[in-house]
Amino acid sequence: MRTLDLTGVICPMNWVRARLALEGLGPGEALTVRVDPGEPLESLPRSAEEEGHDVTIDGDRVTIVKR
Amino acid sequence: MTLSDSELERYSRQLVMPEWSGEAQERLKRASAIVVGVGALGSPAATYLAAAGVGRIGIVDSDAVELSNLHRQPLHYTPDVGGAKAENAAVKLSFLNPEVQLEPYPVRLEPTNAGPIVAGADVVVDCSDSFATRYLVNDASCAEGVALVEAGVLGLSGLVTSIRPGRSACYRCAFPVEPPEGSVPSCREAGVLGAMAGIVGSIQALEALKLLTGVGEPLLDRILQLDGADLRQTIVATERRAGCPACAAVPAAAESR
Fold first, then answer.
1. Disulfide-capable partner of B189 in A56, B137, B154, B185 (CB 3.0 to 4.6 Å)?
2. Which range marks the domain in which residue A11 is found?
3. Predicted-complex ipTM score
4. Min CA distance, A20 vs chain B (Å)?
5. Which residue of A has its CA nearest to B25?
């Protein structure tokens, strides 16, 4: 499973970096990112869901399963 | 080819578009575009190509900036009057995006140099202001198998079409009869509103970006006609013409981009 520490990376750069990492994965593969609380933790999972990926949140860790 | 941190930040607002991707951005970075004419259409077209991150942009224009150009050619400013348009545009665009390689060609496009200038490019954006140059650009792009975005603007009306030589109708397929010289007023003689040219030139940039990245559906075998007076648009279907002297003998370009 790929992981990416995106703490300290503001919107939308955190989603830019997560998207680029997702591009390197196949369907069904997972990416876990750590993001800051507040806007990043609210906005990044929503962006991922809007593109059809499965998203689970555990604390500050967001796991995105590529569709 | 990877994108630097500053490129990721520069292009972040297009990289987050669902339709876009890092791969699309890298394709742009590897791409080469030729903009023919950097006036009313070429100013916005070249600006958006440079801003979006097309790796190499050649700018062909032999004219000098005139005071009467400035109302519709937003790359050229009042202190630039008298300077060469191609070089002025390259300077301005290098301020906008230093990641882009800019190549000014301060020459008039002629049958002798058109082929060598467009050869090797991934897309040609025809922003010229005469029918003679438009047919020349079409023929050279077809002969070299380079994708092309054609457009024209006059007064408050404009048209745009995209061409993949060998696969879709070329400009000569759509308009097989060249208007005799002087029969149609060029924008030099007729009026044109800068904002309308800006719309049409921006559509040309959008088409070129689509052709380069594979995102969206370019105006292939379709001509967009736009009337600025009421902003009504019409799309006219075109098709390849058997025996077209420009593109009939062109083999379909590889499905690379």
1. B185
2. 2-65
3. 0.90
4. 6
5. A20
Spell out the SS3 assignment of chain B.
CCCCHHHHHHCHHHHCCCCCCHHHHHHHHHCEEEEECCCCCHHHHHHHHHHHCCCEEEEECCCECCHHHCCCCCCCCHHHCCCEHHHHHHHHHHHHCCCCEEEEECCCCCHHHHHHHHCCCCEEEECCCCHHHHHHHHHHHHHHCCEEEEEEEEECEEEEEEECCCCCCCHHHHCCCCCCCCCCCCCCCCCECHHHHHHHHHHHHHHHHHHHHCCCCCCECEEEEEECCCCEEEEEECCCCCCCCCCCCCCCCCCCC
On chain B, the residues whose CB falls within 8 A of the CB of A13 are 8-9, 12
What residue spans define the domains of chain B? 31-237
Kindly report, residue by residue over A19-30, the tens digit of the pLDDT. Answer: 999 999 999 999
| 10-residue stretch averages of pLDDT, chain B, 257 residues long | 92 96 98 98 98 98 98 98 98 98 98 97 97 97 98 95 98 94 71 96 98 98 98 98 95 56
Q: What pLDDT does B255 receive?
A: 47
| Subunit contact A13:B12, Cβ cutoff 8 A | yes
- What is B31-237's CATH superfamily? NAD(P)-binding Rossmann-like Domain (3.40.50.720)
Q: Is A11 a catalytic residue?
A: yes
Q: Of the candidates B9, B13, B15, which has its C-beta nearest A19's C-beta?
A: B15
